[in-house]
Design goal:
Blueprint (H helix, E strand, L loop, with lengths): L1 H17 L3 H14 L6 H14 L3 H14 L6 H14 L3 H14 L3 H17 L3 H14 L4 H16 L3 H13 L7 H14 L1
Length: 204
């Protein structure tokens, strides 16, 4: 019965998380950690708590929970994603040094193209936000070359165009946007690409 109670408490928090009821989910996960601090699922509970905090934009709390989860279970299936989430959280907090460190770790351990491409996007964003536009553009080109049909490639195209526009290279921004729009299909970035193309037109 104790094992059933433990499993039930964890699943309540998990279900609420999947329902996007993050406030309630966090309460239930906190209750699980309080009741079962040495259970076999405590690492999973810290990971879940990190995910919930991430979606609530509580990035410092998210990092703390992910670090605890990884320290308890460094070979868990969610370790790669937790590293990626930590990198994004550091980026949101403006801590570029730690963000880049975690994105590199995420890239090195990535076991799928989605995580690898996302990690490269994160590195490029750090470069761009710290004024290293040339390094950012190089990473964007790498993403487009390695993952040409991915959503990450569309993101890289859009961010490349943003950088060109910000530097006053309006003709380059226009021509790059046209190419990107032609291959965008139903990408989530299509509206953004059309908008920045219009901005490039108006700036010339």
């Amino acid at each position: 019965f104790d094992k059933i109670a433990m499993e039930s408490q964890f699943r309540i928090g998990e279900c609420l998380y999947l329902l996007h009821e993050y406030d309630k989910a966090q309460e239930e996960v906190a209750l699980f950690i309080e009741k079962f601090p040495i259970s076999e699922k405590v690492a999973d509970s810290y990971y879940l708590n990190g995910e919930i905090s991430f979606h609530r934009n509580k990035h410092a709390d998210s990092i703390d929970s992910f670090e605890k989860a990884v320290s308890i279970s460094p070979r868990a299936g969610w370790t790669g994603l937790s590293t990626y989430r930590m990198a994004l959280s550091y980026l949101s907090l403006g801590d570029h040094e730690n963000s880049m460190k975690e994105f590199r770790k995420s890239l090195d351990s990535a076991d799928n193209d989605l995580l690898a491409a996302g990690s490269l996007i994160g590195l490029a964003r750090n470069y761009q936000e710290t004024g290293k536009t040339g390094d950012a553009m190089k990473v964007y080109r790498d993403i487009i070359a390695k993952y040409p049909k991915s959503e990450a490639a569309q993101a890289a195209c859009f961010m490349t165009i943003q950088a060109l526009y910000a530097e006053g290279k309006y003709q380059d921004a226009e021509s790059t946007a046209k190419i990107a729009i032609g291959s965008a299909g139903d990408s989530a970035y299509l509206d953004d690409l059309n908008f920045i193309l219009a901005c490039a037109y108006s700036a010339q």
